[in-house]
Amino acid sequence: MFVGLVSVASAEATQVGATVLIVHGTHLESGASAPIGAIPAPLLHARHDVGRFELFAEGIPPFGRVPLGNNGLGISGIELTYLNGVVEYRLSPATRVGIGETIYNQQTTYNQPPIDGFPAQQLDRSRLVGTRYQLDQTLWQTARVHLDLQLALNPHISANLGKHPEGLGVPPNIWVVLPEAGSQVDATLAATATSRKRIGVRYGLRYLNLIMRFPDGSLADRNTLLVPFVDITAPFGR
Question: What is the pTM of this model?
Answer without folding.
Answer: 0.85
